Amino acid sequence: MQDRLVGAQGKIESNGATGNCAASENDPVGWALVKAAGLGPAPRRSGPTWSQFLRGEAQGVLATDFFTVETIRLKTLYVLFFIELTTRKVHVAGVTEHPDSA
Q1: The pTM is what?
Q2: How many domains in the chain?
Q3: Is residue 102 situated within a structural domain?
């Protein structure tokens, strides 16, 4: 376990290069620091749940990806496309042989 300390501004800091500063009740050192700073768990919100939020925002959400197609002449084509999550409509944005050129 990495050593953790409370910095001058009361923020939890870690001396590890990839240290995780999240504290929970299962981490006695981190939890003690959080309690000593007068912080506790975040209060419950009265807003929608995460799944309710995602359903409400799905109309404006697009997913994007690309795939390759091998032609009969053994050329590779790169296809960029978008998907509307609510209707699952696919929109092809472009097809090119050279995706790194303008």
Answers
A1: 0.46
A2: 2
A3: no
Q: Is 96 helix (H, G, I), strand (E, B) or coil?
A: strand
The two three-digit tokens of residue 40, written as one number: 């506790």
pLDDT by residue (tens digit) across 29-68? 777 787 888 877 777 778 888 888 888 887 788 899 999 9
DSSP state of 58: G
The answer for 99, left when phi > 0, alpha when psi is -120 to 50, beta otherwise, is: alpha
Q: Would 41 be classed as within a structural domain? A: no
CA distance 97 to 58: 33
Can you read off the two tokens belonging to residue 87? 């209707």
Neighbours of 33 (CB within 10 A): 19
- Residue 60, amino acid: G
